[in-house]
Every structure is written in C-alpha cells, then in structure tokens.
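Hi U.,

Before I forget, here's the chain from the pilot set. I'm dumping it here mostly so it's searchable later in email.
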Amino acid sequence: MPSIHHARPSAAALAGVLMLALAGCQGASTDAGTAMSADTAKHTAAWTGPHKGLLAPFKERAFRYRTPLEVSDGGRFMRVPYDELIDINKRDELPVRKVKSWYVRKLPRGAEVEREYEAGGRKLQYWAMGRLSGGSKMTVIYLHGRGGNRDWGFDDERFGGNFNRLKNLMLNAGGAYLSPDFTDFKADGLADIKALIAKYRPLTSGKLIIACGSLGNTLCWNLAEDKSASSAIDGLVMLAAFPDDAFLSSPVVRSSGRHIPMMIAHGSWDPYYDYKQMLAFFRKLRKTSPDYPVRFILFDTGKHGAPLRMIDWRDTLNWIDAH
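Structure:
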C-alpha cells in the first residue's frame, strides 16, 4: 500500500475550513472576477446541456447550470455563472441553513437508514438509501470535509437542497447512496473507507463513485493511489479540492486501462484552496495523459462551499457513467 498522504493544505488554510457551509464560504466576495488566460478563451465550444444517461431528470430547471460563461478544451473546462443573490438569497428560506421547500422532495418513510460498518476493530455509522442489498445500478459514497460528519451528505436543506436532489436521482435510478462517518483523514480513515467500499462493491452492478468535499479530498487522493481501492472505484468527484501531483505518476494515470473518470468542481473565489492551483493540476493531467477522462467546472465568483451547492449531480454522474 502506498504511503498515506496527510492533509496537504497549510495550517492557516485548515483553520478556515471548519465550517464549509457558512455563508462566507458559499457566497461571493468583493474581489475582481475570474480572469481566464487569452489562450484558454480562444478555444470555445458549445455547451449542449446535461449529459443524458442512467439518471433521469429531476428538478432539472432548478439545478442545471445556467448558460456557461466559457467552454473550452473540447468541453472539458467550463466556467459557469454563480451569483450569491440568486443562488443563496433567492434559493434559501434561511440563507445557507434552509433551502426553500420547492427545491426539496422528501424521500418515502423508511427509505433512509442509519447503519453500522466495521474497520480495524472500529465501529462507525453511516447513512444510506437505495438498493443496499444488491443490484445497485450506481453507488455513490460522499466523504465530508473537516468539521463534518455523516449528516452533511444527507442534509436535505443545507447546500441549497443539492444533496436531496442527489438522493432522489439515485432512488429513481435504482442506485444507492452512502454518507459515512470515518475516523480521520489519515491512515485509519483510509482503512475505514476501503472497508466500506469492499462491502458495497459486490452489491453494485454498475459504477461505484467516490465524491469528496474539501479536506475529504485527502481520502479521494489516497484511494486513487491505493492499488486495491483504485481497482474498485469507477469515478471521482472532487469538490473544492487541492492538487496532488503524486497522482500524475500513479498507475491510474499511466495505465490507460486503469483511468478513473474525474470531475473537478471549484469556486473561483475560494479563500482556502486557490482554484488556480487546481486548474494548473488539471492542465498537467491533460498534458501527462491527453486521453484521461477529466472535466473541470469553475463556478464564477463562488467561494469554498459553492461546488457542494452548485454541482449538477445528474450531469456529473451520467458523464462518469458514460466512461
């Protein structure tokens, strides 16, 4: 097993990540907007809309991206609009804490269950819904960031109702969705999630996808660079992440037969993890492996929590499923 990566951000950066869902993390700032390089702007392509596939439309009008401000690199890069007045103030009944009821459809009684799993003698809890006993057409596991817990990925009303949409998409598609607790972002946490993957990989007939928020991306990187774990994973969703150049020399990148589709989503005004570092990583990956299935969605003027609020789960998961 490869060496375990500890958190890559600085201590100063970590101090600010404790509450991912605060309004300051999801909204805009007073700085200037994103300025893309001239050579990036030259290469434009049309956005044809959300990817079709396994996940059928659900509240499409409310959650799909507005007309992109920029589409380049054959559609692999998109800069999409984000506006705090629209995407928080008009969307939420209580800004950041409670979305308006129109955005939410509660799952049927009993559809969401709290379960326990074991790793290294540790017993941990997780929320789960969907086809959990076998035959899941797609399984998604969400790993929270610093200061979070299993409740974050199942919260219907925070993050603009976006996790509620994910649950409904998965339920309607015959999939499964999990949001676990785990010990830490280091070796024990990695072992925890590997145990959960090992439990649900045989129960999944389709793709198994790991989505990570903020510091949770430490686990995403380590899973991708772990031989046994990476062989069981079919997709990665990196929300408000930070780069890991070690990934560029990993078998997942170097061997075309082991590519794991990756969606990167970031806010251009993220005060903790500068989008420019993640964009530079994206371009390195494109250069290192031009055929690697990777996309980058940049939420213009969005801050640290914008990707959790704004990622179009249907577009993202259908795109991963198609690769």
